[in-house]
Design goal:
Helix 2 packs across helix 3 and helix 4 crosses helix 5. It is elongated, with a radius of gyration of 17 Å. It is mainly α. The mean pLDDT is 94. 61% of the residues lie in helices and 0% in strands.
């Protein structure tokens, strides 16, 4: 990943900017439908908490997607953030080259 690579969106951003903005559902109603506390949903929407497998299953059911979609969004975001953070630390690791 290059130093200027964009970080994939956190799934909370997608929930905030797509799901909530494109529907008439309030945050309170969304939390109720997902059987989450309003605070737990708030933490996801503000990108302070990760989408867990349990939440991914709930989102998939509610939105007609798959749990894997939400988990992939979360993982892509997490890996990009961590790669960026670890850039200097891993720069000294010499890759193995296949012998062939």
């Amino acid at each position: 990943m290059s130093a200027m690579a964009l970080i994939p969106s956190h799934p909370g951003r997608i929930l905030r900017e797509v799901v909530l903005e494109d529907s008439d559902v309030t945050k309170t109603e969304l939390a109720r439908r997902l059987a989450l506390s309003r605070q737990a949903l708030h933490n996801i929407l503000t990108e302070k908490a990760r989408v867990t497998p349990e939440v991914a299953i709930r989102l998939a059911r509610l939105l007609g997607t798959t749990p894997q979609l939400w988990l992939n969004l979360q993982t892509n975001h997490d890996v990009a953030v961590l790669e960026n953070k670890m850039r200097d630390e891993i720069s000294g690791i010499e890759p193995l080259h296949a012998v062939g």
